[in-house]
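Researcher: Structure prediction, please.
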Amino acid sequence: MFLRELTQDVTILKGTGPSTIRALANLGIRTVADLLLHLPRDYEDRTQLVPISRFSEGKVYTAARVVSHDWFGFGRMRTLKIIIADESSEAALLCFNRPFLEQSAPVGATVQVYGKFQFKYGEIQSSSFEIKRIIGRLSPEAELSPIYPLTEKLNQAALRKLVSIALDKFASHLEDELPAKLREARGFLSKSEAIREIHFPSSLEHVERARTTLAYEELFYFQLGIALRVQSRRAKTIERGPCPGMLAARLRERLSYTLTADQVSVLAQIVEDMRKPYPMARLMQGDVGSGKTIVALLAALYAVERGGQAAIMAPTELLARQHATIAAHLVEPLGVRLAFVTGAVSSAVRPPLLAALRCGDIDIAIGTHALFSEDVAYKNLELVVIDEQQRFGVLQRIALYRKGRVPDFLMMTATPIPRSLALTFFGDLQVSTIEHLPPGRKPVVTHLAREDRRASVYDFARQRLAEGRQAYFVYPVISGSDKHDLRDAESMAAHLAKEVFSEYKVGLLHSRLSDETKMEVMARFASGELSILVATTVVEVGVDVPNATVMVVEHAERFGLSALHQLRGRIGRGAHQGYCFLVYSKELSEEGRDRLKALYTTNDGFAIAEEDLKIRGPGEMLGIEQSGDLRLAIADMRKDFELLKLARHDAFGIIESDPALATPGHAVIAQVLTRANPFSES
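Model: Predicted structure follows.
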């Protein structure tokens, strides 16, 4: 983005002493480039004089005469009060912790005053203001004054001065990186103009134009990197064997239900990709219970029919075993050979299992992380499917992908992804969406219950249990802790079994239990032997018990939106109405209130995902370990979606028409996020 000099330490700027250097470092500012990309969070408008009488219209900016000094309060609370007057009115300045203003703004002096005023206690007054003694007339400033994020021992005046010095020294030499034709066609500013205007603009309109220019450039090169990855992947040619889809057709005939229109459409997209001469890279997203798994299994049959193998990886043994059980029932009668692969496979069974995978005697392998263990090899891995992809690290996804030569790649998620993040974190993947649930599914009814209404929640659950239904009770921690005043799964399982629902059988499920115990508990709950399952978020995915109609989540304010939505999706999967109770604390934060309100007002996972993005932002929403941290310096994924689409259109268009135009003259404004997909090292 900048000349070489801008990568130098800020110490090359005049006025940067040791204390200033330390303060700047606390803000992450070490180079001149860091300084120029430390953007204002707001602006003060002193381009027009605003007299005291117009205080209700906004901030006052006026020249006034100091009329008198007064003091109020006693002892350490004694505070200076300065009475000022301009040509329109009189006002009081309350100088809390600023007694020195008695000397710098003496009675009779003319002062420049800028601040927010209000009418209180029978007078116009302000306690938030700037004051400076002046000689002569006060003139409007030519530019808005930037307000920067600060740290201790660094004030606005000092930071403004440093930025101004850096701009004077380097801004005129900044080179434009965007292709000239593209910049002119879109009406963007030059790099030099944009950097100057975003720091010291003449109007708010100029601020927006400068920000748009810089945000577009950032997004453009981000999307350019994605376009280059797509181009690189499509350069890898694959010889595709014939695949009429007979196995998939026979499986669809065996199903006891008809695929929805969305499922049929998404399957067609996947099959079309699997017939192209380059590897598929697709993300299939769909709400909880929308039927993604059967679509993935049908896709696997296309790979098998062509003589290849498929690997389907799930994040937990619970979910993987459920997939394997369902798949075995469906595909083994078709002659398809299936294996369940986890780390818990016994030492006696493991060698022949691995040998069968290696020589191609297994068509579909379903399992957990064990699928990409070092000693696991495949004869011809043609399709890799990652279920609940957000629960795997990028390196884990790559490890399984590399088990094949150039396999097709399908990721699945029941956590809907906002459109802006789909074009960034997963921008080099095609996205398929299953929007509608199978017919007959009733939307879950969600209730918010404050913790002092817990008894009413228990009464409601008891009514459903008496009707023969089942219930989940979910807690944020496994066991009690002195650090948190939280209800935990272990103690609450005992409490519910002995004191609340003693007439019903209660089971306990959490991550510390052995895999065998987890499977036993889930089997008992699925069979109806247990009426109540007390658990942590281990039941968030992969638990399908149609008879369970009640979900009670304790301390709901401590869960993320996506987790709450996933938990709610565990119920209402049968013919009976589902009910979800989100029990929250009396001390509820504003963010917690927003999350619960979003869950209460809609069952639409995509609407919830957009709200989650607004509340938490992209980095927190997707997580650093799973998908890389989207650190954009200027663009905002919450409000720049249209700009993102424009940048993507232009970047992909340039790669297709004239790749040479895309080469920047200097370092890209933001490095391309390469950790967000399994093809990042290709």
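Model: The longest strand covers residues 60-72.
Researcher: Thanks, that helps.
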